[in-house]
Amino acid sequence: MIVRLLAAADPAGRKARFAEVLAPAAAERVAAADTVLVLCDDAGTISEAAQRVLQGVGATAEIGRAGAFIVAASRPQLEAALRASEAEEGVAIRRLLEAFDRAARVPRALRLRDRVLALDGEARVMGIVNVTPDSFYDRAAGLDDVVARARAIAADGGALVDVGGQSYAHWNPRIAAGEERDRVVPAVEAIRAAGIDLAISIDTFKATVADAALAAGADVINDCSGLSDEALPEVVARHDAGLVVMHLKGELNVRDPAGYRYADALREIVEFLYERTERAVAAGVRRDAIVVDPGLEFGKEPATDLEILERFGELRALGYPILFASSRKSFIGRIFGRPAKELLVPSLATAAIGIAAGARLVRVHDVAETVQLARMLAAIRPEARAGLAIADRMPGTPQTGNSPALPAV
């Protein structure tokens, strides 16, 4: 049973979302529910008995086509349903309650070998350093440049550096593991030798490359293939490292728009990530070392990428920290008709959407700007506002003799 959070809060959005799986009257009832959080089970494992229990405590619960089950409920209603249920329906209702809690809870920390990365404040920024000569944007020119870029990422407030040695663009060929290893391992060694205090992520899907990079001092493997190499999770587990599991439809370095069709994109993405993260845990990767990524642009066309942005919060029910990665990607360039170098503003806009919907890590080319964005979004939280150090005036503002400065707060 895989439970998803369906985050459409407005009635029109809910009605449109569920029209394909619910009868019109049922879709109307879900749209009219006075609760915001909507949960969905797509596996057909919730019975009519469970539906009656939920309805009996005031929740809106509807069984739709193909086994879909949709419930709009508050946490007290789910608790009441659990108390009122028998053993069989109680199992399903407990899973709904667990998904509710996962969706509402912000992961507090991410364990990366001997590092613990706090996630309960502002979203953390991962700066990109590409060491491949055919990357689509902003490539490092030698190891000195790698170190300089990593040092700049740290100075700008980044928490991680993501080193990539293989371009996944469809116009670039796949390179051998040995060549990729020879690109990324020296970069890891150089960053470590420079004493730069960043967690190092390696953007690879190959187990042999991951093994060598982790042995050299990397902390995280960012796998854009969704564990296509079955040996990769065991390598990550053996090094006690972190793992980013990304959704991919199709293959890396291959573009097949005709194959990028989704009946329900978020349903497919959540099911994929659930299965792959469970596979990683079974191989020994710690749950508190796993991050999920919906894979914007990977096996998607722009319409699907925009749908993911709209429904990004549905990923929270998986219970893992979410990585958001849209920086200067071509789906944004195709929407605006602009090259990658002109996409800073829309990239920041998408990052704001992702962070507001629950992303705790953001992978970007523009670290300083994104750190400011993340800090601004974090500052609006009540607990953050109370502890802010506020300057008496904005730097650069003239101070006249008859206008005394305000006292610092």
Molecular structure report:
The chain is an alpha/beta fold and 409 residues long. It has two domains: 3-104, no CATH class; 112-385, Dihydropteroate synthase-like (TIM Barrel), CATH 3.20.20.20. It contains 15 helices and 14 strands. The protein has helices at residues 11-18, 24-32, 48-56, 75-84, 87-104, 143-155, 177-193, 207-216, 232-238, 265-282, 302-310, 330-336, 344-356, 367-379, 382-385, and strands at residues 3-6, 38-41, 60-63, 69-72, 109-112, 115-118, 124-130, 160-164, 199-203, 220-223, 242-246, 290-293, 323-324, 361-364. The strands form three sheets. The protein has an eight-stranded parallel β-sheet. The termini are far apart. The mean pLDDT is 89.
In total, the number of strands is: 14
What would you report as the Rg, rounded to the nearest angstrom? 23 Å
**What is the CATH homology-level superfamily of the largest domain?**
Dihydropteroate synthase-like
Number of helical segments with 4 or more residues: 15
Main sheet, how many strands, which sense, barrel?
A: 8 strands, parallel
Terminal Cα separation, in Å?
A: 51 Å
Structural class: alpha/beta
The number of domains is 2
Nearest-integer average pLDDT: 89
CATH class of the largest domain: Alpha Beta
Share in helix: 40-55%
The parts where pLDDT drops under 50 for at least 5 residues are: none
Indicate the CATH architecture of the largest domain: Alpha-Beta Barrel
